[in-house]
Amino acid sequence: MSDYLFAYGTLQPELAPPQMAHVAAKLKPVDGGFLRGVLYDLGGYPGAVPDANATGRIYGTVMQLPDDPDLLRALDAYEEIDPLAPQASEYVRELREVELAAGGTLECWFYHYNGPANEAQVIATGVWLKRQRGVLADS
Length: 139
Prior knowledge:
The protein is globular and about 35 Å long. The longest helix has 10 residues. It has a single domain, classed as Gamma-glutamyl cyclotransferase-like (Hypothetical upf0131 protein ytfp, Roll), CATH 3.10.490. It is built from two helices and seven strands. 10% of the residues lie in helices and 37% in strands. A five-stranded mixed barrel has the order 1-4-2-5-6. The chain is mainly β.
């Protein structure tokens, strides 16, 4: 089991919504990093679909998880993962190798978007920043 989480959206430092701020505050930023894949704008939050063969990158923050068995359950609940049917959930938590900004890789938990991309806009930069007052701040 990994002691790290790769966050690319609302679980990143300073981007957590008020209802998750107390949980996100327990995560310790380690380094920036990326996965290969596609990042989608799903409205008020992003969805990432990893693909090791993609040319695009999904950028985020690698964070160390505290020694708290309830933390991953709280994160899964926030991501609306149904523990009885995780594959039917909008997100699936899985382990992925993340390339670190400082070099090397680290195995991290990652929330893979499991829903349809349909008409979701691709975020070509691979970087999602918080929507503020209805204005998209990552363009």
